[in-house]
Amino acid sequence: MDITIKKPSNTILKRYWYLLPVLVISIFVIKYLFTFTQAGFAISKSIVIIDEVKRGDFTVSVRGSGILVPENIQWLSANVDARVDRIIVKPGKLVKKGDLIAELSNPRLQQLLEETKWELEAQVAESKAEKVAQKTALLLQKSLMINAKLNYESSKLKQEAHNELFTQGTGAVSKIDFEQTRLETIQLKQRWEIQQDVLNSMLENTQAQHNALTARIKKMSKTLERAQQQVNSLTVYASIDSVVQDVPIEAGQRISMGANIAKLAAQNSLIAELQIPELHIQDVAIDQRVVIDTRNNKIQGIVTRIDPAVVNGNVQVDVSFSETLPRDARPDLTVDGEIKITEISNTLFVNRPLFAQSQSVAPLYKMSTDGSFAQRIPVKLGKGSVNKIQILEGLSVGDKIIVSDPSTWESYQKVRIN
Questions:
Q1: pLDDT at 152
Q2: What's the pLDDT at 303?
Q3: Residue 172: helix, strand or coil by DSSP?
């Protein structure tokens, strides 16, 4: 006879089922405690910036901010004392060479100009009258000289005839008549020579007086020209194609000679003046390429001058442009500049960690493979750029590091990333 044996319905699993959750929780707790004890500080992943080390071509550059300034600046100034009647342009206006800037007035200069014109006209009239008088005197003297010459020649013929008759001894001419004729001829010759000398002296005197009159007229003409220039300077025109930067005068204002009227800046000859931190200036050199950012456009340029002095921790670098400036380029426009220092091919680089300095050994936090921890390690850094830096030793391609500010946990060797 078979006897049926019943198996117990409660197995060990069913008997101790309530211990399973406890076991799972214990495993997680142990794992958490193990993880927690591996790092002395915990940070949230949302507050850190992580970047990956890459290999490739690396451009070393230096960045600075500055302004555009005109290379060619001209001040228009007053040439005379005057009063401002009207201002035609205001700062910021584009003007062409010859455009009217302002109108001034000075009644005294207008009166002086008119008086100078009258004086010049009077001198010209006096010069003409003097020339007529000199011409008349010369004609009279020439007439006297011709008469003296004719008298001499007539007496000379008479002397020759008397000489022939007296020599023949015919008695037709007495010795007394012969001697009188001879002496008269000598006297008339001397008179003719004297009249010639007088004419020559009058010609020299006439030329001297003519030169004096011409000099006085030229002097008065220069005086008139200067007076005209002074009157013309009361109307102020633009001397170059430019933009008006400043007009430091007001209508009705009295200004002195030499006072500034307007400041003009040539629009097509702007340069950039960048302020470069003194820590980075040792890498900057003449003729290096520069990219100037006007916020709307980017312009290519080259370094043309490096200031020898340091002012407020910065060094001024002048940049000339190698291409046509855009329409938004104008004096005093704030710009950013990036100076290309050098190109390094096939090198390791990463986004520049905060406070990382070029050519130094910096403690950086390297991420673990699973991204749970960041271990502080020494990394040898090379040349730095605006937002990237070269890695020489300590990291490999694909490694990830924290590039944000580590000052909160920098005293810990290892931190946990939550």
A1: 83
A2: 94
A3: coil
Per-residue model confidence (pLDDT) at position 357: 83
> Tokens representing 130?
């003097």
Q: Are strands 373-384 and 289-293 parallel, antiparallel or unpaired?
A: unpaired
Cα distance between residue 221 and residue 216, in whole Å:
8
Q: What is the token pair recorded at 263?
A: 């400041």
CA dihedral defined by 150, 156, 158, 163, rounded to 10 degrees? 180
The two beta strands, 41-43 and 414-417, are parallel
pLDDT at 2 over 60: no
Tokens (6 digits) for 296: 């709307």
Angle (CA) 22-23-26 rounded to 5° is: 85
DSSP for 214-281 reads HHHHHHHHHHHHHHHHHHHTTEEE-SSSEEEEE----TT-EE-TT-EEEEEE-TT-EEEEEEEETTTG
Q: What is the pLDDT of residue 33?
A: 47
State the pLDDT at residue 301: 93
CB 243 within 8 A of CB 68: no
Q: Kindly give the pairing relationship between strand 334-351 and strand 361-367.
A: unpaired
Residue 169: its pLDDT value, please?
A: 66
pTM of the model: 0.55
Provide the greatest CA pair distance for the chain.
229
**What domains does the chain contain, in order, with CATH numbers?**
41-69+269-417 (2.40.30.170), 72-106+234-265 (2.40.50.100), 107-232 (1.10.287)
Tokens of 120: 């010049």
How far apart (Å, rounded) are the C-alpha atoms in residues 356 and 127? 89
- 264 C-beta neighbours (distance < 10 Å), count: 24
Question: Closest by alpha carbon to 292, among 317, 313, 259?
Answer: 317
Residue 46 neighbours by CB under 8 Å, 6+ apart: none
Matching residue, tokens 């992580």: 50
Cα dihedral 92→96→97→98 (10° resolution): -100
pLDDT score of 282: 85
